[in-house]
Amino acid sequence: MRSKTRAISYLFRFMLIFEINRFWIFSVSETTVKARIGWADDGAPDYDENEEVQDIEWDVQDFNNFEDALEISEFLIDHKLMKNDKVTIDREALFNRIGWEKDRYDAAINTLLSVKVDMLDKDKKTDYFFIHF
To answer: Which of 10, 27, 67, 75 has the greatest CB tally within 10 Å of its CB?
Structure first.
């Protein structure tokens, strides 16, 4: 098991895929991180920063190659290759752009595609954040 600080860092870095601009930690244990995320004003006339939030809970997944997976997520963000939860480039094209050994890339992308963060509404799990091609 990784440290609580590492779990918070991994969760925050993963959630950046979803263009969050706020991240509050509610609680952290050896196995779970509970937090709230929020989004910036998207130009909607009735924007309310208190409504543009989502409580989340992550049952900490401990992958050996999480750093590689997050490096890919940061590449996707930096190159604007995400639309909501969908990677906008195909898997092979991403492999070619990343430039890693095939085994390293496959392991990292499989890890990234395995990350799931639960959405909480009134403290009940109702859906989850994930990414896909």
So the answer is: 10
